[in-house]
Amino acid sequence: MNKVMLVGRLARDPELRSTASGTSMTTFAVAVDRRFQRDGQPTADFFNVVAWGKQAEVISQYLSKGRQIALNGRLQTRNYQAQDGSKRYVTEVVLEEFDFIGSRNDASGGGYSNNRSSQPAPQNNMPLDDDMDDEFHLMADDDDVPF
Questions:
Q1: What is the Cα–Cα distance from 48 to 57, expressed in whole angstroms?
Q2: How large is the C-alpha radius of gyration of the chain?
């Protein structure tokens, strides 16, 4: 299984380009904070991400450096010939799904502000229904499963 899940901030603005056939593509980097700090300084890992088609267009239009994103994708390694003749390898995340998180005002990297009220959550004081067990039956073996 090749699956990557990241939550972080864009480290640079997305770069929208088109292939020769007209397919949109964008590349960007995501900075993901580590749980530990080195010498008291926060550290992050940086991941290169590539998005294709409509996703590339939406990301380029609505996201910019500093904005938060949650994404799912897969790792891909490719190689190319550099101008000096050497062979270079690149590992990147190919985007499959993403969600905007945070707000536009959150792009400064200042963190998340939770403005919930301090009132306690409502309690569910409904009594439990003792007859509920009658609605559910334990299936003893796999032959009883309807699919």
A1: 17
A2: 23
Q: Is the dihedral of CA 77, 81, 83, 86 positive or negative?
A: positive
Residue ranges of domains in the chain, CATH in brackets: 4-35+43-100 (2.40.50.140)
Q: What dihedral do alpha carbons 99, 9, 60, 76 form, nearest 10°?
A: -80
What sign has the CA pseudo-torsion 75, 76, 77, 83? negative
144 φ/ψ angles, rounded to the nearest 5 degrees: -85, -10
Q: Look up the pTM and report it.
A: 0.67
Q: What is the pLDDT of residues 78-102, one digit of tens each?
A: 999 999 999 999 999 999 999 999 7
In total, the chain counts a number of residues equal to 147
- Residue 45 CA to residue 43 CA, distance in Å, equals 7
